[in-house]
Every structure is written in structure tokens, then in C-alpha cells.
Amino acid sequence: MDAVPVANNPVWESAATFSGRLHNAVLSAGAEIAAELRDVLPLRVANLVVIDDGGPGGPGDVFTAIAQRYCRFPVLRVDSLEVPAFVGSDTVAIALGQGADSSTMADAVAAAASQGAQLLCLVDSSDLAVAGATAEANAVVRVVETVAPWTAPALAELLAPGLVLLEVIGALPAARNWVLEATHELTAITPRLIAEDGVAAATARSIGRTFPLFIGSGLLGEAAARSWKACFNMTCRAPAFASTLGDAATTELQGWGQHGDVTRQMFTAVVLRQEDEHPAVGVTVTKLLQELQEVTHAQVEVDAEGSQVFTQYLQLLLLGQLVALYRADQEGLVPGPTTAYPL
User: Residues 99-143: pLDDT tens digits?
Assistant: First the structure.
């Protein structure tokens, strides 16, 4: 692969404008989607099912964490060929496609439709299987030109309608205003994130050629860690791992008991932090990183900025993209098409 400087990399440039894209997507799609959904949604929403083809760390996973954090009813993510038996006429299902013509997602959409769920399908124009599955369903279908899966623009285009959905069903009554405030704040933060002496570049240098283990706590932090892993896999074409703080500090901690002479050359622990963490999180992180000093190459803490939880979450998602892009640039890699074998 040819080396492309970060400043001239179109994927990098699109990541740097992530907040603006999300802002514009909410503004352009919000009123139209809200009007379409209000006409077809059930009077009472008992549960929300998120169907996606992106795997852990993809847009569906990212959106599910937001929904689970704020919805007062069960939210479940599905990435298999079928949906649970509880899906019915009081279920709202949202399908988020990334441009892969996935029969897995199409079958799940068809199953949800056959069980009476109301569907909001966000699909790329190339996703013919999902489009066919919704042809006779009670569905609101939006074609989203994601262009490049697993990038910041794709995430913005898929997140925006989903957040509007949460507003319409009453889970986030002022979601659009909330998102617009967060994106304004993130726009102001972004220049510091992308600077060559900023946190993204520093984190990428700390990881170097080691394999990162990304650790998050809470619904949003754990989803952010999975997103960082996915970005690293897809952009750097290198192994990366994600864990929850609960697992990393208990059962997984025991797995570092041997082979420290090997692991300290191969692994870097990266802990993603947020301001609204439970007080116990800080204590656990301190103890965990002390234990990992002897068995990992480096231990890095990344602190999210922002006056509200959602801004911090968006910042962590963007940082995952930027860190991966910096590492790819350090290796002279240009992100491009990837190989995948969906069900």
C-alpha cells in the first residue's frame, strides 16, 4: 500500500469533520424521519430491537449503547439470522446497514416484519437484500449513502436517524437539540484532538507496533472500547482487543499470571475514561494499571472531554477513528476495502 500523509488522507479529513456531519445529518433528516415515524409507530413501545451487520463496535453496537443508557424499556442488539420470540406489534426495530449486501441482516429484518414489528431501516443503496426484505413490510426505509463503512461519515449518517427515532418514541424527548449542542462542543474540541501533539497522536505513539487492549466501563464506555478495537482492526489491519473493566480487572487479570516476558513486548493497555463514572471505577482502574505495569508494554488512560455525557461519548468514538488513522499513517497504510464473510 502507498503511504499517504495524514493531512492528505481523505478518510482522515472525513473523521476530522465528524461532528459537522452528524450535526448536518440530524438537521437534514430529523423533521422528515420524525413525521414518517409518527404515522406508523405503535401507541405503546414495549421494546426496541437493533438489527445490524456491523459486528461489535459498529454503528449498531454504538447506537444500542445509547438506547440502553436512556430507554426505559428493554433494548436488544441482534446480528444473527433471527429475532427473539418477544418481538411483536409493540416492538420497534431499527436496522442499520453498512453497505454490505448481507443476507444475515435481511433475514433478521424479514423475521421482525413477520412478527409484526414496526421497522426503521437505514440501508445503503447497494444493500439489495435488505431492500428486498422490506418490500412488503410495515417499514420506513431510508437510503443512506455511507460511502465507506467503518468510517466517521458512515457512523454519523447512521446514528442521526436512530437518535431521531429515540426522540419520537419518547426515550430522549429532546434528542435533536441534545445532539446539536454536543456537536457544537465537539467541533470546538476536535482541533486539539487531531493536532500532531494531541491525544490521538500521543496514544498512537504509545501503542506503536504492539497489540492494544482497549478497556471501557459502563454501557457507553464499553461500546466505545469495542468501537476502538473495530477501527484498529479495519484501519490498521492489525490485531486489537476490547474488554470491559469488570472483566479486565477480574478473570482476565488472572490471564497475565504467566508469560510476562512476552506480553510486555506485545500488548498496550488503553483505558477509556469518562467524567460521569461511578467513584469505584477510578479505584479499580488505578489498581488494574498497577498490576499491568509488569506485564504490558505501556498503560494509557484516555480522558474524554465535554460538558455532557453524550459529548464525551462522541469524542471517544471520534478518537478511536483518529488513533487508528495515525497508526495506519505511521505504518504507511491507506485504509481501503476489507474482506468479510457475513452469514
Answer: 555 666 788 888 888 898 888 877 665 555 555 555 555 677 766
Q: How far apart are alpha carbons 66 and 61 in whole angstroms?
A: 9
pLDDT value at position 64?
Answer: 93
Beta carbons of 98 and 154 less than 8 angstroms apart: yes
Instruction: Kindly calculate the radius of gyration of the chain based on its CA atoms and give it in whole angstroms.
Output: 20
In one-letter notation, the amino acid at residue 164 is: V
Residues 144, 212 within the same domain: no
CA torsion through residues 221, 225, 226, 232, sign: positive
Inside any domain, residue 342: no
- Is there a domain that residue 335 lies in? no
290 part of a folded domain = yes
Residue given cell 510476562 in the structure block: 260
CA atoms within 13 A on the CB side of 182: 24
Dihedral in degrees, nearest 10, Cα atoms 199, 204, 205, 210: 150
The neighbour count for residue 177, using CB atoms within 10 Å, is 12
Yes or no: say if 195 and 127 are a contact pair by the CB < 8 Å rule: no
Q: Which residues neighbour 70 within 8 Å (Cβ) at sequence distance 6 or greater?
A: 166, 171, 172
> Of 126, 149, 182, at which residue does a domain stop?
182
Beta pairing class for 47-52 and 91-96: parallel
State the residue range of the domain holding 234.
Answer: 195-330
**Contact, 232 vs 240, CB < 8 A?**
yes
